[in-house]
């Protein structure tokens, strides 16, 4: 059984998670709970759980304050929260699971299955460490690492190491400055949302480009972007105006 702690400022949300775990006979034993950050920290230190269900938005101290107060991350985390823009962005950036309220039972089952797999591997929780680095210094964008989960590993890549992303159905291929590439089983639009503030532009349905690696915009052949390595990236008609605006803004 997976030992779990639930921290949420609303008691009914805690009861709902317990009820869902029992109803769907998931291999989770809730060994403690708390309705505020300070009590939650005490429960975690006392019970040493395998899994933490953690609400991001709580009064006085939020879920990230809980994590900041802990010396080690020897557990997995599933964030259970109403939508919080920066919080969810940071969680996605680190490839950590989250559930939006109200909780979908199928999504809960999938999250628990992932936790079982990770606990079986008994690896250090670098995803959680990466998340906390993002939270502590969210303005130091050049130091931010994006967690890319391939079938073999989770690789942490600085955003400045990513030259471009190219989609293939529900998969996204990342091309890196070291000449390697990583295939991730997530659609490109998710990464467009995450990388929007890191000088990336979506110039085509299938392409997301780091503007730092654009050599020029070529107007012939319906227009394309020429990258520093001479790769040609098409510009779709519907995105041409946004590409021009983005490049003009970056040059300024």
- Strand line-up across the major sheet: 2-1-3-4-5
SSE string, helices as H and strands as E: EHEHEHEHEHHEEEEEHEEEEEH
So what's the overall shape?
Answer: elongated
CATH superfamily of the largest domain: Response regulator
Stretches where pLDDT falls below 50 for ≥5 residues? none
Secondary structure: helix percent: 25-40%
- Main CATH class of the largest domain: Alpha Beta
Rounded to the nearest angstrom, the radius of gyration is 21 Å
| Overall structural domain count | 2
The CATH topology name of the largest domain reads: Rossmann fold
Number of helices: 8
Given helix and strand content, the structural type is alpha/beta
Largest sheet geometry: 5 strands, parallel
In what range is the share of β-strand residues? 25-35%
Distance, first to last CA: 56 Å
Strand tally is: 15
What is the residue-mean pLDDT, rounded to a whole number? 92
Please identify the oligomeric state.
single chain
CATH architecture of the largest domain, please?
3-Layer(aba) Sandwich
């Amino acid at each position: 059984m997976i030992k779990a702690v639930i921290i949420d400022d609303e008691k009914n949300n805690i009861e709902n998670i317990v009820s869902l775990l029992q109803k769907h006979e998931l291999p989770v034993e809730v060994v403690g709970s708390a309705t505020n950050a300070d009590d939650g920290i005490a429960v975690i230190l006392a019970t040493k759980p395998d899994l933490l269900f953690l609400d991001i938005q709580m009064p006085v101290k939020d879920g990230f304050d809980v994590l900041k107060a802990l010396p080690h991350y020897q557990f997995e985390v599933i964030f259970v929260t109403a939508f919080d823009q920066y919080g969810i962005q940071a969680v996605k950036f680190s490839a950590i699971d989250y559930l939006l309220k109200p909780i979908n039972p199928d999504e809960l089952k999938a999250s628990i299955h992932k936790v079982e797999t990770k606990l079986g591997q008994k690896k250090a929780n670098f995803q959680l460490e990466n998340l906390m680095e993002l939270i502590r210094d969210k303005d130091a964008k050049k130091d931010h690492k994006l967690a890319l989960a391939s079938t073999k590993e989770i690789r942490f890549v600085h955003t400045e190491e990513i030259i471009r992303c190219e989609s293939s159905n529900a998969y996204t291929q990342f091309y890196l400055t070291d000449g390697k590439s990583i295939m991730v089983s997530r659609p490109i639009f998710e990464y467009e949302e995450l990388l929007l503030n890191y000088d990336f532009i979506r110039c085509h349905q299938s392409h997301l480009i780091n503007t730092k690696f654009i050599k020029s915009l070529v107007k012939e052949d319906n227009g394309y972007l020429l990258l520093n390595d001479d790769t040609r990236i098409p510009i779709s008609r519907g995105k041409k105006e946004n590409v021009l605006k983005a490049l003009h803004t970056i040059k300024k």
